[in-house]
Amino acid sequence: MLFASVLRVSDAVRLIFNRRRKRGSMHHLPINLDVRNKVVIVVGGGDVAGRKVLSLIDAGALVTVIAPHLNDALRQLLAANRIIHLARNYADGDLAEAFLVIAATDDNAVNRAVAKEARMRSILADIADTPELGSFTMPAVMSRGDLVITVSTSGKSPALAKKIREELEEVFGIEYGATLRLLGGIREKLLTEKGNSAYNKSLLSQLVAHGLPELIKEKRYDEIDHLLLELFGPGFTTNDLLREEKDHQ
Ligand SMILES: C[C@@]1(CC(=O)O)c2cc3[nH]c(cc4nc(cc5[nH]c(cc(n2)[C@H]1CCC(=O)O)[C@@](C)(CC(=O)O)[C@@H]5CCC(=O)O)C(CC(=O)O)=C4CCC(=O)O)c(CCC(=O)O)c3CC(=O)O
Ligand SMILES: NC(=O)C1=CN([C@@H]2O[C@H](COP(=O)(O)OP(=O)(O)OC[C@H]3O[C@@H](n4cnc5c(N)ncnc54)[C@H](O)[C@@H]3O)[C@@H](O)[C@H]2O)C=CC1
């Protein structure tokens, strides 16, 4: 424990910093970042950049790619007006407007230069070939509607992260998307209409213990309606909460 009262924050940070930052231990803080309408720069236009750009666009970021050449996937995104492209090499100063940057060129010196500018400007940075120079890494991601499961191996084996993501896709089917639409609808209604937080917690915990994904997968809507009536009283039905699924039956 540092005596914060006699240290300036900058000194304390430097003391802690000097004790860490070895490549061997890369434990991160997992967070879910809101990048909607944020300016994101991706330096490099190859396969790695292409993969990261897709995730960024999915999350609603405003993506500018800086690279002399784009791969096919990125060219298609450009043709569809989904990205801005600066067809040239990265230059110092390119990050001036950025909230976040990804360096994914095949030139380590360029990626390092991006890392340096990002650090100077306190911009979040993922450096694809030298992750220890950046401030975050990207996990493998699987999603089913609003359910998002991410896998990190703390940089040890991206190949294993990908394999575990594929295994998770087998376990968590599309019924989880519908389950979350149902649970989200109920929770929204409870938070706006019904009792206090402890009451809601107890009911919502009881509901998720009932294996809803299985019931939805097998279209056992009558059983779900019965359960909703028992737990919440009238006003909560799959007709309202799962209309999309039931219309497509
Ligand atoms: C640290 C990190 C930084 C970052 O990129 O954010 C990073 C770094 C590096 N990756 C390398 C290699 C590969 N990366 C993949 C694939 C993925 N890499 C991803 C993330 C990350 N990769 C971050 C850590 C994630 C974690 O902690 O687990 C995924 C999960 C997400 C994504 O990219 O969006 C995506 C899978 C997406 C999916 O399918 O779900 C494959 C597999 C393949 O391509 O099939 C290979 C080859 C096999 C292998 O090496 O394992 C190399 C060596 C390059 C070289 O050899 O020159 C480096 C550099 C280094 O380690 O120094
Ligand atoms: N983090 C990850 O998930 C992975 C990282 N890598 C690392 O990422 C690097 C890139 O891999 P790929 O996309 O497969 O390479 P690639 O060769 O397909 O693409 C490289 C891109 O960088 C661009 N580029 C080169 N110099 C540039 C500059 N000065 N300014 C802007 N753009 C420039 C090129 O035009 C090209 O679009 C590799 O060197 C590798 O070390 C590789 C695999 C996975």
TrEMBL record:
<dbReference type="Pfam" id="PF13241">
    <property type="entry name" value="NAD_binding_7"/>
</dbReference>
<keyword id="KW-0627">Porphyrin biosynthesis</keyword>
<dbReference type="GO" id="GO:0043115">
    <property type="term" value="F:precorrin-2 dehydrogenase activity"/>
</dbReference>
<dbReference type="InterPro" id="IPR006367">
    <property type="entry name" value="Sirohaem_synthase_N"/>
</dbReference>
<comment type="pathway">
    <text>Porphyrin-containing compound metabolism; siroheme biosynthesis; sirohydrochlorin from precorrin-2: step 1/1.</text>
</comment>
<feature type="domain" description="Siroheme synthase central">
    <location>
        <begin position="144"/>
        <end position="170"/>
    </location>
</feature>
<dbReference type="InterPro" id="IPR042518">
    <property type="entry name" value="SirC_C"/>
</dbReference>
<dbReference type="GO" id="GO:0019354">
    <property type="term" value="P:siroheme biosynthetic process"/>
</dbReference>
<dbReference type="Pfam" id="PF14824">
    <property type="entry name" value="Sirohm_synth_M"/>
</dbReference>
<dbReference type="InterPro" id="IPR028161">
    <property type="entry name" value="Met8-like"/>
</dbReference>
<dbReference type="GO" id="GO:0004325">
    <property type="term" value="F:ferrochelatase activity"/>
</dbReference>
<protein>
    <recommendedName>
        <fullName>precorrin-2 dehydrogenase</fullName>
        <ecNumber>1.3.1.76</ecNumber>
    </recommendedName>
</protein>
<keyword id="KW-0520">NAD</keyword>
<dbReference type="InterPro" id="IPR028281">
    <property type="entry name" value="Sirohaem_synthase_central"/>
</dbReference>
<dbReference type="InterPro" id="IPR036291">
    <property type="entry name" value="NAD(P)-bd_dom_sf"/>
</dbReference>
<keyword id="KW-0560">Oxidoreductase</keyword>
